[in-house]
């Protein structure tokens, strides 16, 4: 036997489905963008009691909801910690990302993301995707105006694909706690692929990051007389 909590009826509702409020999407600091499971899914979970019978939504209501979300006008958005455990959550999440045509600063920390290569963020200058499951630079969204990119604590094993950012204004890159960080001549390889980069893992570009490998080897040699 269980006791139904008062909030159970809102368990799978988006903020824009709650009546009598005038808040728009770009006024929220960290909104949840997930969409509730189908009635069949709720039935198999034995949670059908949490959701009232859904009414038919007209095209007008769909359009009003889209306008209320107003994602197209977001300049800064934090969509971190979404706990995207089901496919329907991931698809709805990507639906929102496709509408972020004006976002300049975006945080997507700890969302279990694996591939956003189909997403384009044309104005994004700062992107934080720390603590996700990316394994390659090819899985990142298209970000032609990126200046600051943080990829800490993913699973990027090689630097293959990093040269795709050569023609972007990328100034700062964070790759801490990725397997590629332990690659031989890691910093030297990153800066050789990204000549415009000014800072890697919080450390500014150093002279030895630009020197040829044989020169660096010479400096490490010690002569004992």
From TrEMBL:
<dbReference type="InterPro" id="IPR001611">
    <property type="entry name" value="Leu-rich_rpt"/>
</dbReference>
<keyword id="KW-0677">Repeat</keyword>
<dbReference type="InterPro" id="IPR032675">
    <property type="entry name" value="LRR_dom_sf"/>
</dbReference>
<keyword id="KW-0433">Leucine-rich repeat</keyword>
<protein>
    <submittedName>
        <fullName>TILB protein</fullName>
    </submittedName>
</protein>
């Amino acid at each position: 036997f269980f006791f139904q909590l008062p909030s159970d009826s809102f368990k799978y509702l988006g903020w824009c489905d709650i009546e009598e409020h005038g808040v728009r999407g770009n006024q929220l600091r960290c909104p949840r963008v997930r969409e509730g499971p189908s009635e069949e899914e709720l039935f198999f979970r034995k949670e059908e009691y949490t959701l009232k019978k859904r009414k038919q939504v007209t095209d007008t209501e769909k359009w009003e909801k889209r306008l209320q979300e107003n994602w197209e006008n977001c300049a800064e958005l934090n969509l971190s910690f979404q706990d995207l455990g089901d496919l329907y959550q991931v698809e709805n999440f990507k639906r929102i990302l496709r509408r972020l045509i004006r976002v300049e600063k975006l945080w997507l920390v700890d969302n279990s993301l694996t591939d956003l290569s189909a997403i384009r963020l044309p104005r994004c200058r700062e992107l934080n995707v720390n603590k996700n499951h990316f394994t390659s630079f090819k899985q990142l969204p298209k970000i032609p105006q990126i200046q600051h990119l943080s990829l800490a604590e993913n699973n990027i094993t090689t630097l293959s694909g990093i040269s795709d950012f050569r023609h972007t204004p990328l100034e700062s890159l964070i790759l801490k706690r990725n397997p590629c960080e332990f690659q031989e001549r890691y910093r030297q390889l990153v800066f050789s692929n990204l000549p415009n980069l000014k800072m890697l893992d919080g450390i500014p570009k150093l002279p030895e990051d630009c020197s040829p490998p044989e020169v660096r080897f010479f400096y490490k040699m010690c002569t004992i007389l």
